[in-house]
Amino acid sequence: MMKPAMNLKKLFEEKGYKYTIQREKIFEILMKHGEEHLTATGIYELVKLNHPDISMATVYRTLLIFEELHIINKLGSENEYNRYEFNANNDAHKHYHLICVKCGQIKDIKENFMTDMSENILEKYHFIVNGYSQRLYGICKDCLVKKVQDKAAKIAVSGAGNEL
């Protein structure tokens, strides 16, 4: 079995990209942290622990290449930093993400809601769905609890002021 880094080197050569040790180390961090949805800064900090010579620009350039080659999936909203997920199967993105618009937390949904929809699309439109990316934006449980607590605190403060 070939090592993943050897496969990466071969892929880079096939696509005309320069293969460097920095890109290999970024790849290793992404593999090791799999589904953690790391930011570019998080990736940079992890690589920098063992390779202090790496630059943030190298991380950004490498992430762009990895995204183009479908090695990673970029996630995020316009209000948040992008986060990156390792694409272990190097194929179309086939699961959903819940993305909190308050704190940026991302959770994977493992259920496949597209199965029935794909069958209906094939039957009705004669179109075969072979990939999709689905992001659901909202507010996570922790942020909802905080929002309720903040409202309660405001009511308590404004209510206490009325008693004086």
Automatic annotation (TrEMBL):
Q: Which domain of life is it from?
A: Bacteria
- Which UniProt key words apply to this protein? DNA-binding, Metal-binding, Repressor, Transcription, Transcription regulation, Zinc
Q: Name one Pfam family in it.
A: FUR
Q: Does the keyword Glycoprotein apply?
A: no
UniProt-annotated binding residues for Zn(2+): 100, 103, 140, 143
Which cofactor is essential here?
Answer: Zn(2+)
GO terms assigned for molecular function: DNA-binding transcription factor activity; transcription cis-regulatory region binding; zinc ion binding
Q: How is the cofactor bound?
A: Binds 1 zinc ion per subunit.
Tell me if DNA-binding is a UniProt keyword of this record: yes
PANTHER family noted in UniProt: FERRIC UPTAKE REGULATION PROTEIN, ZINC UPTAKE REGULATION PROTEIN
The entry's family comment says: Belongs to the Fur family.
Query: Can you name this protein?
Result: Ferric uptake regulation protein
Lineage of the native species? Bacteria, Bacillati, Bacillota, Clostridia, Eubacteriales
Tell me the name of the encoding gene.
fur_1
